[in-house]
Design brief:
CATH architecture of the largest domain: Alpha-Beta Complex
CATH topology of the largest domain: 2-enoyl-CoA Hydratase, Chain A, domain 1
Distance between the termini: 69 Å
Largest sheet: 7 strands, mixed
Radius of gyration: 28 Å
Number of domains: 3
CATH class of the largest domain: Alpha Beta
Length: about 700
Amino acid sequence: MQKLCRIALAVSISVSFSIGSISVFAFSDESTNLVLPILAPESQHATASKRITARFTRGHYKKVKISDALSQEVFDRFIKQLDYSRHVFLAADITRFEKYSVEFDDVFARGRLDLAYDIYNLNMQRRLERYEYALSLLDTKNISSDENVQKSPFDYTQNEVYSYDREGAPWVESIAELNELWRIKVKSDALNLTLAGKEWPKVKEILTKRYKYAIKRLKQSESEDVFQLVMNSFARVVEPHTSYLSPRNAERFQMEMNLSLEGIGAVLRAEEDYTVIQSVISGGPADQSKQLKAKDRIVGVAQGDKDFEDIIGWRLDDVVDKIKGPKGTTVRLQVISGKSEDISNVKIVTIVRDKIKLENKAAKSEVYFEGVGIGDKTSQGKKLGIITIPSFYNNLSRDVKKEIEKLKAQEVQGIIIDLRSNGGGSLPEATLLTGLFIDKGPVVQIRNGANRVDVLRDKDGISYYDGPLTVMVDRYSASASEIFAAAIQDYGRGIIVGEHTFGKGTVQQHRGLGRVYDLYENPLGSIQYTIAKFYRINGGSTQHRGVLPDIAFPSAIDPEDWGESKEENALPWDQIDKAQYTKLNDINTDVNYLTSRYQQRIKNNSEFNYLLNDIEKYKAEKDDKTISLNLEMRKAKREMRKEKQLIRANERLISMGKDKITTLDDLPDELEKLDPFLDETARITFDLVSLGKIAKK
């Protein structure tokens, strides 16, 4: 159901009216033709909210109790979702809302949704005002008398800064303060385009389209958008892997589960005005491009050779519709690295869409030759097998068994299992995969909400590979990856190297909210909620803590910035009784030896030194949430960064026996293939082979 009112900014007549308990102001002017919807709950929403609450309070692993404290938390998260950077609402708005914060449980538990819709409607109005103000800044005239051309109204010689993260900032008191925040924001947007080589007329054109599209997006808001925001505010206060899926998202979820997608193979999320890559599907076109990574931001989309469309500020659904498409068609993306705060630093990635199938995620093996790297059959010398596992899909263990046989036939002296960026998947496959490397025994323990503990075991009595084993993990290795790595570590069956893993030790269930007897005009969505926790066979949980590697590589990812420990309301680490199992090897002495050899090597390893320098710089700058709006300073910083990248590139090329380059545009493909972590893991594994100890007993 939607009611419509005519709204505009900077007009002579305003009319106030009341929706529920909050006053909303509607502005009218005959010069504008904009109509914003006043959103209201649909008939099925009250029923859906009650069913969601019932499921969370009765079936969730975490004991959920409706209370004033929970009501306040859900309210706070709802406001945060509406205005994360605190540049839309006024302090007076928040003061008015907070009177109802302890009554917010009436919204999500009892289906009395009017309050949430009132707040959302006011947020839309405030956003409209902000974008109209942004457009007015672009219309400021600044004509050069010499050239008789329009120039930017912004002065980039001043030493102003843009605060791009205002999460903890105080709410502003007045419209004048909001205007100043938005003047700085628009100036930053314009400067980024200027740094990208755009003249003011083009800058104005792009930003005008961007802000007008944002207004159009407001107009397209739907009742389900509000309901989804409310229910997910509730769900995420309960636990970070608990969520509500709208009917549209529930349908998309089923498509992904059936692997019947055509597109680039990337999971996207909305973050403020940006579309951010949540993860890249292993084996898909995005993964094969080697140019897209988690946390990268997509700011422009073009179909084939057509012009780019600026998608900053777009609805996520609209961005997804632009990016996905039939197999064989081409999409070009303008991308900003997740590591860069300078959003003028854009690269273009061209991807040919394809069918995203399970087969694209299959495990694969390669042979690594000492001193050479991954080679072909003509290479000579000591060799290792590398099995890359992108996900725990059905029949993974069968595929890995085949790869092990291939590697045995080539007489490799050790095997590396590469689980980097493996977000998990099938729990039974984690058990079966572990079983390839041990005779028999427990692999993982699972405790449900009733405190019942089940133990999944390998029972076949056969070990398909009993030689030296190393497992590579990183901060993106999660869930089933952590179960496998933890079991190998607890048995002393192999060495775990890399980064502290993600720390997801929970089990989720997906349930639809609809019933066969429902007669609502619109369908109900579905929920995903946590029903159990994983535990290692030593009794410790993988939840929150993840798996700590035996040999830790330097990491550019701070656990405080990414992983389960970053998630609000994550279930805590705890432990249960250990399972009955026999350790295969006591590897502490061997780990000490391998670690000392590793540490000695990396002292003179340029790639590790580069990384250590980057980490040091990141830590020094991470708390600075501002960026300069001085054009010359930004240019100088950009040139300094490029110069540093060029120096590093040439140092790498010289070490590879190749010619130096004069510009980053001439970077050869060989540099993209460098994998210093894999090379060092191979050296560690060759050291392990020389000990002749880590094997099944």
